[in-house]
Amino acid sequence: MVKLTIIAVLALVITQCFCAISPMRSSRRPRLDGRIVGGYVIDIKDAPYTVSLQSWSHVCGGSIINEKWILTAAHCTDGQSAASFKIRAGSTTYAGNGTLINVARIIQHADFSFYNIDYDFSLLELATSLTFDSSMQPVALPEQDQEYPDDTPALVTGWGNTQNADEARDRLRAVSVPLVNQEICNEAYREFGGVTDRMICAGYLFAGGKDACQGDSGGPMVTDGTLVGVVSWGYGCAQPSYPGVYSRVASVRSWIRSNTGI
Predict the structure, then answer these.
(1) Exactly one of 217, 232, 247, 251 is catalytic; which is it?
(2) d(CA 245, CA 33)
(3) Which of 49, 87, 174, 209 has the fewest Cβ atoms nearer than 10 Å?
């Protein structure tokens, strides 16, 4: 990896700090990023589309959508150059094994906004193509504007913080969460401006206890083998009444196709 300068490191830290305070519509602040809370360790072969986006270490997750392209969250890449990043694919741990590849180009959605975290999508073009095997596979993409029923179970994977000292984050973890009705989620986040049509929510609305949080940002939420969401933002982690908010992949399917040909 190209060693980051002190200025570059500070720039990334400042960007991540800014992420943590936007959007802000009340005295309470929602968080960007996710960690797997209430989940379990899995092997990369159980979710071979999951990758670690790395700078000096793991910073976000991502999803393989073909041998040359990764989909992640725009708030993970905003203000950064492609040279700042690599991705590690095909490994259960983010710190070693698998394949480490440079990012050649970042295509961030032009409408991404830190104000309300809308259009939180970035495409990463890899410098060299991935070689698929049982540990590295692309995830299917939905059709444009494809809908999913409320309560559909979805699997979220990542290496983020677990909020539990007994649950190390060095190995890939997963959690299953149900999709939440859009109107109910919008009402839950009304004080923060609600959710847009480019967002989809998932979690245990009343019980809490399972969610994605810091360090899982940009990672996949998959149902029936299809990439439904990208880990984006929310209030707290696994908090009752506040499901996780994900970027809705079906809302930008045409944008993905126009930029990648996929």
Answers:
(1) 217
(2) 10
(3) 209
Distance (Å, rounded) from C-alpha 198 to C-alpha 226?
A: 17
For residues 121 and 107, what is the distance between their CA atoms, to the nearest angstrom?
A: 9
Among the listed residues 75, 211, 216, 232, the single catalytic one is 75
23 vs 257: CA distance, rounded Å:
29
Structure tokens at 174: 């997963």
Is 205 in contact with 243 (CB distance < 8 Å)? yes
Rounded Cα–Cα distance for residues 78 and 53 (Å)? 13
Cα dist from 208 to 79, 160, 215, 244, whole Å: 33, 18, 19, 10
Predicted TM-score (pTM) of the model is 0.85
- Each residue's pLDDT tens digit, 167-210: 455 789 998 899 999 999 999 999 989 999 999 999 887 654 44
Asked if 73 contacts 60 with a C-beta cutoff of 8 angstroms, the reply is yes
Catalytic residue status for 135: no
120 catalytic per annotation: yes
Q: Is there a catalytic annotation at residue 217?
A: yes
Taken as a whole, the chain contains a residue count of 262
- The structure tokens listed for 245 are 């908010």
List 33, 63, 118, 120, catalytic entry: 120
The amino acid occupying position 114 is F
For the chain, residues with pLDDT lower than 50 are 1-27, 162-167, 208-215
Residue 138 contacts residue 169 (beta carbons within 8 Å): no
Residues 6+ apart with CB under 8 A from 34: 156, 158, 160, 211, 212, 213, 214, 215, 216, 217, 219, 231, 232, 234, 237, 244
Q: CA angle, 140 as apex, 135 and 141 as ends, to 5°?
A: 140
